[in-house]
Amino acid sequence: MNKVKTVYDHIRSNNIKTLLLVITFPLIFIALIFLFTWLVVPAEQALQNAIRVAIPTFIACAVWLLISWAFGDSMMLHSAHAHEIHDTDSQYKDVFHSVENVAIAAGLPCPRVYIIDDNSMNAFATGRTPKDASVALTRGIIKKLDKLELEGVIAHEMAHIGNRDIRLDMMLITGVGVTVFAADIIFRLAISSGHGNNDNKNNSGAVLLMVWLAFMVFNWIITPILRMAVSRNREYAADATGAKITRNPQALANALRKITTDSRVECLDKVKSMAAVCIAYPGGPKEFASSLMATHPPVEKRIERLESMSQIKGA
């Protein structure tokens, strides 16, 4: 008889998977540059080229990450047209208190609470650390979910805050932005280096072209697949952690059933990078190209996992 997984088993399993996926990013990046440049130069020189390209790229990622760290959360809230509410707002007093209660149960500081003026059902969390985090809820999710279901959603978002998923996603988004920019620069250098009859110039141009091809494969094939895999694992982990916080996995399962019937947030249609931070894909199910490129796991599997947790005493 197979052992039924507990909430803690799901959290531990998904954390391990995420760590392995994140470690895979720089390893594949270096390996691609080595393999592509090896086509035109000896292996030793190809390895040196890979290291020369990797070091400044990682430094640029770190610098851009600091910039994103400073302004990323406010940009996300602005993109969602979200406005902050307080416990003095009579219309949303119950919502604010629900966030406070879930934060206490999670052992985290109470985040700022924002409302998105959209009648669909979605939510996301943002912020650099738990101390300055924010939770944004659509007007529709507040109206259409009951209290326990809404607390399940809030707990899911608090789980993202506690698990530092916001920081992880910011790192991945930043890395992608830097490597796309670097690929453009390398392509221009490859074109300019290839002019003339000098053999060294031609060889340099060929190496740069191979590096550019490695960047292109990394940016448009490898990175989307790995980043979406990380995103899906973090959603599973946030579901499990949220269930642990409320001790009511069924409430979150019921909420997900309702949310996926109307999760599109129109103001986020053109902000594709924010899709992964929402509790459900905000662009509608028809936009998924394939399961490999999906930002979220199939809702049926998420609900199945949550309902299996609810069958365990004390889940």
List the helices and strands and how they pair.
Blueprint: H1 7-38, H2 43-79, E1 82-85, H3 93-106, E2 112-116, E3 123-126, E4 134-138, H4 139-144, H5 147-162, H6 165-193, H7 199-246, H8 249-259, H9 299-310
Parallel strand pairs: 2-4
Antiparallel strand pairs: 1-2, 3-4
Helix pairs in contact: 1-2, 1-7, 2-6, 3-5, 5-7, 5-8, 6-7, 7-9, 8-9
Task: Compose a concise summary of this entry.
It is built from nine helices and four strands, in the order ααβαβββαααααα.
The major sheet is characterized as: 4 strands, mixed
E-strand count = 4
Mean pLDDT across every amino acid position:
84
Please state the CA-atom Rg, rounded to the nearest Å: 22 Å
| Stretches with pLDDT under 50, minimum 5 residues | none
Q: State which percent range the strand residues make up.
A: 5-15%
The number of helices is 9
For the record, the count of structural domains works out to 1
The N- and C-terminal alpha carbons lie at a distance of 20 Å
Shape: elongated
Widest sheet, order of strands = 1-2-4-3
Give the proportion of residues in helices: 55-70%
Q: What is the succession of H and E elements?
A: HHEHEEEHHHHHH
Global structural class: mainly alpha
